[in-house]
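Table 4 source record.
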Amino acid sequence: MTTPADDELAVLDNAVWAALTTRHEALATSHGRARRYQPDVSPFCAVEDTDAAGWRDLAELVGPEGTAVLFRGRIGAVPDGWTVEFSGGGRQMVLAVGGHPSHDAAGASSLEGLLELDEHDADAMLELVRLTQPGPFERRTVVLGDYLGVVEDGRLVAMAGERLRLPGFTEISAVCTHPEVRGRGLASQLTGLLVERIVARGEQPILHVTHDNPARRVYERLGFRVRRDVEFAVLRPPA
């Protein structure tokens, strides 16, 4: 298996910006060279470049009482006056060319209780997120793309969905399983099914994991390979 050429993947270095200026533009608010998702969709913000002008535009966009959540290949030095409330890192993974987890997808397609999720399922999705903490998730996050779930005894016990969408690429995110049903491969099967959908559209699946996330081994088995490290930070602009 191989991954696409580096020049084809360069857009992923600032994937949130690429999404908010293309396929998710309708979900964005903007000021100059800064963008952010509507707050009930996602907390992520983006700047075209982390230069002085980019930071000024971001401060204007979020306001003095607001919060900016940046997520990109490299954030760099934060200007004076900004407060870093939280920061961390992870890895960006891309499905290798030829990667095709058909076994997992085939299993998912016959899962009892498999469900296409939408905004009517927001309460159940938020409850599962509260239990499992897969990452940022808001009431309308489901509008970002396709979301799949498994329901047992009237309860959502597993889900996975699409988050960032930019030309040629779709990110798989919110992969989580209720603690009481872990070990059955539900998350892996849902991820495999989403991979098949994304590939069928002629796009490349990507995803992001924190450095300490043991799910990385599952994603590698599905054909994903680490491309680069990424940084994320929760920031408050100057008062």
